[in-house]
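Quarterly update from the structural biology core.
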Amino acid sequence: MKHIILGNGPAGVVAAETLRRAAPGDDILLVGNEAAPPYSRMAIPYLLEGNIDESGTYLRKSADHFEQLCIRQRRGRAVAVNAEKRTVLFDDGHFEDYDRLLVATGSHPVRPPIPGIDLPEVQTCWTLDDARAIAQLAKPGSRVLQLGAGFIGCIIMEALVKRGVQLTVVEMGDRMVPRMMTPEAGTMIKRWVEKQGVRVVTKAGVERIENGEKSPLTVTLSTGEQLDCDLLIVAAGVAPNVAFLEGTPVHVAKGVLVDDTMQTSVPGIYAAGDVAEAPDLFSGRHLVAAIQPNAADQARVAALNMAGGVGKGAARMKGVLAINVLDSMGMISSSFGEWQGVADGDGVELADEANGRYISLQFDGDVLVGATSIGLTQHVGVLRGLIQGRTRLGAWKDRLLESPTRFVEAYLASQQVVR
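Predicted structure, tokenized:
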């Protein structure tokens, strides 16, 4: 049996290795569209900080790792899939046939339709090529404007500050990381970042980017303010790479729709990672959970089923759990599940900004379905465990509404009940 894996990021690599273990004699082709070996985008901030070199971003350190596993590699970009003939067309005109296909093509940065967005001093921060360009422009004292204070924007802030730049962050939302943090938590992060010397402008966007008279760029904000800068980094979110599936019977919404076996609407075609839109743990609605641990879990399930798991023997995902863990220049924050709460649910919020602590718990009945925290790093995995396990808390729900920081006690009590 021949397997093609489109995408050699974390999902593609884990899937290829899982397939090799599950199907020792099968043909596996791993396809990536960059010149570098398979690498982790999440390591790029450490590269910009100078903590690692480019080889430190590689997912596997041995140069012959895939050769040793008899996993073939190819550089190319898929441009079309013929689901009936089971073939993939690549950008160089080459065709490959397959028995099983995994779409693990990940995402690409969104570049908003802003005049001047294509000027050379405007960069995204998504690839090793991007990192090289930023390193050339982000010199000590450089004036850098970052568009977006979401997850991607926040993970590169510290790297930029450590490079000695003068950083301004512009965010359209009313707080930092508005799609993963409650208003109070996002505002706490904003105030913390500002104390570290970063200027943060919320409720604002970029209207126009022009070549400056006294600087490479002059940027006009929606507030009317004009800023001179040497570099503008666009961190306005990402979108799944699905264009090559146009015209196929593979169902695509925001991402590629899959069931709990990670199979798409077309038998034999699977998807995993940032490109996959899978059922949520609680609601069952489909969502894209673009985090590396999720990509790895989905890849394992997809690979096991590609190797032959069907019916009752199929590997299944229990449901996607939204997980976000973020280090914003030393302030550690996290959110899990339905962190914004559910209809008719109960919630509690406790903030101690002076000590850098915050917690929000959200309940559906006596089940914890969502949580947000800042500064509670020692036992934060317990929150994930309670949510993912759909633990019925009974009397502990009321205790947590009174004292939300007692979640570790609640977890230990629930485990004793289970035993």
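The chain has a mean pLDDT of 94.
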